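Sample intake — Beta-carotene 15,15'-monooxygenase
Collected from: Bifidobacterium castoris
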Amino acid sequence: MNWLSPDSKFMQAWGNFTDAIIINLLMLVTGIPIVTIGAALSAGQTASRKMLIGQGHVTRNYFAAFKENFVRATILWIVYLLFGAALVYCWIVLQITPLLIPKIALTILWVIGFEWVFALQARFENPPTRTMVNAYVFGVTYFPATLALVAIDAVYCGLFVYLWFKLPQMLFLLAVLGYGSLLSLHVPIQEYVLRKYTGQPFSTHVQEDTWSVKKHQ
C-alpha cells in the first residue's frame, strides 16, 4: 500500500490534480467581473508553478499573485480583450474576401501573444508594453513551444464545443476542470523555455525560500 503514502508519486499526482481544480475555481470566481481575468490568468500561472514544485499553499499563493499582478495584468488583459473583440467582430460581420488573410494573420498574432503574455507577467517585473513585446519575442523565437501551448488549448476548446452540442450535461465537469487546470500543462513547457532567463531549472525539489514570486529581468 505504499502508493497511499503521502510521499508516493500517486498521492503527489492526486494532490496536484485537486490543487489544479482549486486554481481553476479560484480563477473562475476572481474572473467574474471580466476585467479581472488578466490578473486571474497571471495568478493562475504563479499558483500552478508553485504547486508543481511543491511550494507553499495553493490558495495563499494564488491571492498573493493576484494582488501583485493586478494592475499590470489588467492593463494587458484590456488590450487583448479589445483586440480580441475587434477580431470577433471582423470574423462575424466583415465577411469580405480581401480581408481574409489580414484576419488570419491578426488572429495568429493574438493567439501567440496570449499564450505568453500572462506567463511573462507572472514571472517577470516589467512594464506592460515590454511584457507584450517579450511575449511575441518568446512566441516566435520558441515557436515549437508556442505550438504545444496552442495545441493544448485547441484540444480543450474542441472538447468544449463537442460537449456543447453532443453532451451538454458534461459541461459542468469540464468547467470544474477548466482552463485553470490546463495551466499545469502550460507551466512545464514555459518554464523549460524560461529556465535560461530565470536561472532556475524547473524542479519538484526547489525550496520555498529560493523560488520567488517574481524575478526581475
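Post-analysis note: Residues 204-213 have pLDDT under 50 and may be disordered.
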